[in-house]
Design goal:
- The protein is an all-beta fold.
- It has no helices and 48 strands.
- The strands form ten sheets. Strands 27, 28, 30, 31, 35, 36, 38, 39, 40, 42, 45 and 48 form a twelve-stranded mixed β-sheet that branches.
């Protein structure tokens, strides 16, 4: 089933050389941050209303961007099992969010669910007294949501649970208004079942900042608790293109969303029969202008499958399935018009070489469960004893990489180049020397920007190739660690990108922060770099419209700066015809804005920290 960037979590971050953000793909954040104050008794969390960007300070070249502190720690190898020979098990940790929730009119919310958006928090039923208790297995912040009558409504509270602590909330739910939404097929006028509905308040602050719901068999859904204000509604379905509408609450009558059937994209994997049958294919697609799409689909026996085609234009993509299948990149074009789009993807021929060996440290000990070892386009998990065996590798010169994690918590380490013969067996051990560590901590992140990603790259300064040694991305509230580093001098390049609910926002952040050089002098070194968020520059576009046309609700914005600075914001929502973005960068940029039904616009802008840059656009309709 096709999932656009608005419905799937995706972040593709490639660090070309040692530059963070040389290519930024886009993802959907699975948490929503809504400003609010927390109150109650017990262990009270402090208010988390949005920070004033003007209060943020810009780092100086000397010290303010980083604190470079060296600490010496015991060798990790000294951690030994207990006397029974077994490793002691970690005690289960939980963080508790509890409290009382009630409607202002006194009506009971018994049976509703209160939960934190994102992560693994299971949520809690509300009892007859309005009491709830959430036991969270992780310290991941998010907005408090009320799930009631099939809809999930954001409330005016944001919390970040802490292990062995309890946050107590007193939540008041204003009754507000109800709206009925109806989704229909534009051609047949028949109702559309299981359409995903997202209602967003223009300011995205306070109760009903966002509501998620799914239509029933009649194509309808009722959403409650909308306070007075302007809203947008997005209706999506796997078999249709998305529909956007605007409305104001209070409102009389149903909101009708008419969806157009999507064009099919018929994919054929050429050469698929050479491989063992694969269960599913994953396609990550993106455009230079910023559009992106993520697909997970079952593969037919003949190597074919059909998904919904993306919007018209030139697309690039990557295909991945399982460790027995190569990682394939491709390009294709979606032309104007109706009808199916054909996409043949050439799969590399299976090689005749088996590569086996171990992943070991500097003294020859195995590195167990290290992640996935990739040799060229083929990859395999590293076993518990540090061994791997990768079959059917094609001959040639390939780069070996170690991949750990996935999604928005992913790292990649470059190991070495290897020459693989056309056939036979090859034994190759990969050695990762050193035990030094670099820990990057993000400081000064505004309380209303707990979503998004913090990424960094590191390279050795004495490496004549100049390539990146390792790159890492992770959630914005999580520290980034580079471990198993040998003695030497390194350059670290941090960067960060933020976006709110489902990757669609009129308020986005991004930028690469200054490089810093560090030195690891021994295997026990742990170097902490405190990455301070600088004052952002601001970019605002006011979009006009030609007579007789309507401005689209979402635009795509792509910034190209000096050197390797590139940022893409594929789904920026226009609020009152205005797109507002904040960037942690300064300098000269070429900005490309894709307005869908209008001609693409290119502007040259100069961004300066703390200063707004405004443009008024007068687009012309596409021929």
């Amino acid at each position: 089933m096709k999932k656009f960037a608005s419905t799937a979590a995706l972040l593709v971050l490639l660090l070309g050389g040692y530059v963070v953000g040389d290519r930024l793909g886009w993802w959907n954040i699975n948490s929503v941050v809504v400003n609010g104050d927390l109150s109650g008794s017990g262990a009270i969390s402090s208010p988390v209303a949005g920070s004033d960007p003007d209060a943020l300070t810009s780092p100086s070249e000397e010290d303010s961007s980083y604190e470079n502190r060296r600490t010496t720690t015991p060798d990790e190898a000294d951690s030994s099992p207990n006397s029974s020979g077994e490793q002691p098990s970690a005690e289960r940790k939980i963080a508790v969010v509890s409290g009382h929730i009630y409607r202002t009119d006194g009506a009971s919310l018994e049976g509703a669910t209160v939960f934190l958006w994102g992560g693994e928090q299971p949520g809690s039923l509300v009892d007859a007294d309005g009491v709830f208790r959430i036991e969270s297995p992780e310290e991941k912040g998010g907005s408090v949501y009320l799930e009631h009558n099939g809809a999930k409504t954001a409330l005016d509270s944001t919390v970040r649970p802490v292990f062995d602590d309890e946050i107590v909330l007193e939540i008041e739910v204003a009754v507000g208004h109800s709206v009925i939404l109806e989704t229909i097929d534009r051609k047949t006028q028949r109702p559309i079942r299981d359409a995903e509905i997202v209602i967003k308040k223009s300011a995205q602050v306070g109760q009903a900042g966002v509501i998620f719901a799914t239509t029933d068999a009649s194509g309808r859904v009722t959403c409650d608790y909308l306070i007075d204000g302007d809203y947008t509604v997005e209706a999506t379905h796997s078999d249709y293109t998305r529909s956007d509408s605007e409305f104001s609450a209070p409102r009389e009558g149903a909101i009708v969303c008419q969806l157009d059937p999507a064009r099919p994209l018929e994919v054929t994997l050429v050469g698929y029969s050479e491989y063992p049958p694969q269960e599913r294919a994953t396609l990550d697609l993106w455009q230079e202008s910023g559009g992106s799409m993520n697909v997970s689909q079952a593969i037919g026996e003949d190597g074919t499958f059909t998904i919904n085609a993306p919007p018209t234009g030139r697309w690039r993509g990557v295909l991945s399935t399982s460790p027995e299948f190569p990682y394939v990149s491709f390009e294709f074009n979606v032309p104007e018009g109706d009808g199916a789009v054909l996409l043949p993807i050439q799969v590399p021929a299976r090689g005749q070489t088996t590569v086996a060996g171990r992943l070991v440290d500097g003294i020859g000990d195995p590195i167990p469960n290290a992640g996935r070892l990739a040799i060229g386009k083929f990859y395999i998990p590293v076993q518990s004893d540090g061994s791997y065996q990768l079959e059917h590798v094609t001959g040639g010169r390939h780069e070996a990489r170690l991949l750990v994690g996935g999604g928005d918590d992913f790292s990649e380490r470059h190991l070495d180049w290897v020459v693989i013969p056309d056939s036979g067996d090859v034994h190759r051990d990969f050695v990762i020397e050193g035990r030094g560590r670099v820990l990057l901590k993000l400081s000064g992140l505004p309380a209303d920007q707990q979503t998004g990603a913090f990424g960094s790259g590191i390279r050795r300064l004495d490496d004549p190739s100049g390539r990146s040694l390792a790159s890492k991305i992770g959630p914005a509230h999580k520290d980034i660690e580079f471990d198993r580093l040998a003695v030497g001098r390194y350059q670290v390049s941090p960067g960060l990108v933020f976006s709110d609910v489902r990757g669609r926002s009129s308020y986005a952040w991004g930028g690469r922060l200054p490089f810093r050089e560090i030195e690891i002098r021994s295997d026990t070194d742990v170097i902490e770099l405190i990455v301070e968020i600088p004052e952002p520059s601001r970019l605002e576009f006011l979009v006009g419209a030609p007579p007789g046309s309507t401005v689209p609700g979402v635009v795509s914005i792509h910034l190209q700066g000096d050197s390797h600075e590139r940022m893409r914001f594929p789904f920026v929502e226009l609020v009152d015809r205005t797109a507002k973005l904040n960037f942690y960068v300064s300098g000269q940029f070429e900005v490309t804005i894709d307005l869908d039904v209008f001609e693409t616009i290119t502007e040259n802008v100069t961004l300066r920290a703390g200063e707004p840059t405004r443009r008024t656009l007068k687009p012309t309709a596409r021929p």
